[in-house]
């Protein structure tokens, strides 16, 4: 055993074992470490990058897989284009977290986006991504982007009425990301948004974390008049599924139908996962999930 999340099998091969999730008694994911690229402890977290034959290059923060070359598109494209194609005119976008660069890469592609500000707490994740994960690190090269190394909550608290869309691309609610799941943070997001602004936040898996998601819905509906959960499939996450909490300042928002289709068509061939059809289908949830979320929404 090298440490908690790395172990050897009977053939003496190194394997990564995910333990850094919310319900680590149930959730497990194992990926063979073909070649370790780097492992280091930053001021905020443990950062590991390695290669696997099937998944390609992988990024792990504090024992939890963040992204792999194989399937990162399903997360980065959906967390970006769902809110950007719900908002009527998403010119100014704020990304909180997202240190690998994948969300910045996607957001900057959108034809209506003019300015992107990103606030990431850990500069070492950015440096590692640029060096070892250039398919995502390339996101930091876009001239629409201004990058700050700062605590996301602090940034949001100090900026009022500035953004059309705010994306919170955080790791799980442990360690440096904990504050990004608290009521005070959602209140600050509300105030940081312009008229009709929209937030889209990493919101865990309905298979393992439904109580957590219900609790999040309960908090956010005290602040935003409209909210929904959208789902995507990520093969390298322990349940293979993750979702996003999307909330709008507008009372009459149509979450399910993608706007801007004509302009968006120009970038469609650069995408691997998102389409207007995937957009609509993300809001169709299994009955047991929909019932439970409706129950929260109907009892504010
Ligand atoms: N830019 C991609 C970063 C990914 N951020 C989300 C990572 C979530 C990892 N854990 C998923 C397990 C669900 N409990």
Description:
With 300 residues, the chain is of the alpha/beta class. It has two domains: 7-68, Spermidine synthase, tetramerisation domain (Spermidine Synthase, Chain: A, domain 2), CATH 2.30.140.10; 72-297, Rossmann fold, CATH 3.40.50. The protein is built from ten helices and 14 strands. Helix 7 (210-221) packs parallel to helix 10. The longest helix is centred in the first third of the chain and has 13 residues, at 72-84. The chain is globular. The model has no long low-confidence stretch (mean pLDDT 93). The chain binds spermine (SPM). Spermine binds at residues 21-22, 64, 66-67, 75-76, 98, 100, 102-103, 169, 171-172, 202, 204-205, 209, 237-238, 242. Belongs to the spermidine/spermine synthase family.
């Amino acid at each position: 055993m090298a440490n908690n999340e790395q172990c050897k099998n009977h053939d003496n091969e190194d394997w990564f074992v995910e333990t850094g999730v919310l319900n680590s008694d149930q959730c497990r994911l194992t990926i063979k470490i073909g070649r370790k690229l780097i492992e280091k402890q930053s001021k905020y977290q443990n950062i590991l990058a390695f290669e696997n034959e099937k998944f390609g290059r992988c990024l792990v923060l504090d024992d939890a897989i963040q992204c792999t070359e194989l399937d990162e598109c399903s997360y980065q494209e959906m967390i970006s284009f769902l809110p950007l194609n719900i908002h009527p005119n998403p010119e100014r976008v704020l990304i909180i977290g997202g240190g690998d660069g994948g969300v910045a890469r996607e957001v900057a592609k959108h034809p209506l986006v003019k300015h992107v500000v990103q606030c990431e707490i850990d500069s070492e994740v950015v440096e590692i991504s640029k060096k070892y994960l250039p398919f995502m690190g390339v996101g930091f090269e876009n001239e629409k982007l201004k990058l700050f190394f700062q605590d996301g909550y602090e940034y949001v608290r100090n900026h009022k009425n500035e953004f059309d869309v705010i994306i919170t691309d955080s790791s799980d609610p442990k360690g440096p990301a904990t504050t990004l799941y608290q009521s005070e943070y959602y209140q600050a997001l509300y105030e940081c948004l312009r008229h009709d602004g929209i937030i889209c936040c990493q919101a865990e898996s309905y298979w393992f974390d439904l109580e957590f998601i219900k609790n999040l819905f309960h908090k956010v509906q005290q602040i935003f008049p409209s909210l929904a959960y959208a789902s995507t499939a990520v093969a390298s996450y322990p349940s293979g599924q993750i979702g996003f909490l999307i909330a709008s300042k507008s009372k009459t928002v149509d979450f399910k139908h993608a706007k801007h289709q004509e302009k968006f068509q120009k970038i469609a061939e650069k995408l691997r996962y998102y389409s207007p059809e995937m957009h609509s289908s993300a809001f169709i949830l299994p009955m047991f999930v929909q019932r439970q979320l409706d129950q929260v929404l109907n009892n504010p």
